[in-house]
Amino acid sequence: MAAPAAQHDGVHIRKGALADVELVASFNQAMAKETEDLAIPHDVVTRGAKAVLEGKAAAAYYLLEVDGENGGDAADDGHKVVAQLMITFEWSDWRAADVWWVQSVYVRPEYRRRGYFRALYAHVRAEAQAAGAAGLRLYADVGNERAHRAYEGLGMRSHYKVFEDMFTSY
Hints:
Layout: E1 11-15, H1 21-36, H2 42-53, E2 59-67, E3 79-92, E4 97-107, H3 116-130, E5 135-138, H4 145-153
Parallel strand pairs: 4-5
Antiparallel strand pairs: 1-2, 2-3, 3-4
Helix pairs in contact: 1-2
């Protein structure tokens, strides 16, 4: 088995910064369209990403960059952001600790199947353990079989159903 992407030279994982807001918003729009066929207005996803990146929401983005490519990203530093995920926090009174929810997972299509999500997940998993979290959870659209297989490949298992009563159409 090949080493995870983060163990290769040229891969960097960092927390998102306000300068990343347009990139994160574009990833979120692409993910919504691809996974649920939703067209979310750009101003909505931008406001949502900005709230996280400004620290106004109990969440954080993690971005994976690769070296040697000009990605047109916020920082013109020879790195290209190719993957993201967002973490939110849920207090578990059963465990007296936070459960970290993995959300807004996106890998640029041309960078998929290279171990980048696995590396990003491993990084966040290690941070969650170090922070004393009870564990990680995520949800995926019921029809997103490719995502289900990826998450199962990481050792995650599903034993819950998520119910919702949403007040918006997206």
